[in-house]
Amino acid sequence: MTKARSAQAGLTLVELLLAMAIMAMVLASLSDMLQSAARASTLAGEAMTLQREADFALARVTGRIAAAPAPTLSKWPGLDQKTNKENLFVTKFDTIEIFVDGAGQLVEAEGPQRRILADSVRSLSITATRSSGGAPLVEVALNLARGDASAAATSVVRLGSIR
């Protein structure tokens, strides 16, 4: 019987089970690695989307600031900022109001017309500083966050610089 058995080449059941167990461990570690890579890719995509939204909104806001009339010295700092129940704060440039509403949306309002520039706003800061060159410099800092992704954008523009 041993001659007939040795003539058949093959694996025993124990060898097959051992090979399958090793393969299962290798595939399990690869699966975790692929899931981690997919999560990182999704997070990077969300962060890029937020950065584009922040850049767009910042460009829009700084464009409005640059187009606003420069204040006289009696109206320094030239930013009419106020807070109210519905809005975190409102900054007014000429006839344009820029504010973050209670839903975390950055809104630009001109009369009855409202435009949402960005959502998922974590913070918005608009600060004017005195400048020896006349009109104040205005720093705008915007932070957006959605899920685990976040983006920040900052710019400085001279109030009324394109009029």
Q: CA-to-CA gap between the ends?
A: 103 Å
Beta strand count: 8
What gyration radius follows from the Cα positions, in whole Å? 30 Å
Number of helical segments?
2
Shape: rod-shaped
Feature tags:
single chain, 163 residues, alpha+beta, five-stranded antiparallel beta sheet, three-stranded antiparallel beta sheet, 2 helices, 37% helix, 34% strand
Protein topology:
Elements: H1 2-7, H2 13-67, E1 80-82, E2 87-93, E3 96-101, E4 106-110, E5 113-118, E6 121-129, E7 137-146, E8 149-158
Descriptive account of the structure:
By secondary structure, the protein is an alpha+beta fold. 37% of the residues lie in helices and 34% in strands. The chain has 2 domains: 2-40; 47-158, no CATH class. The protein is built from 2 helices and 8 strands. The chain is rod-shaped, with a radius of gyration of 30 Å.
Summary?
Helix content is about 35%, strand content about 35%. The protein has helices at about 1-5, 15-65, and strands at about 80, 85-95, 95-100, 105-110, 115-120, 120-130, 135-145, 150-160.
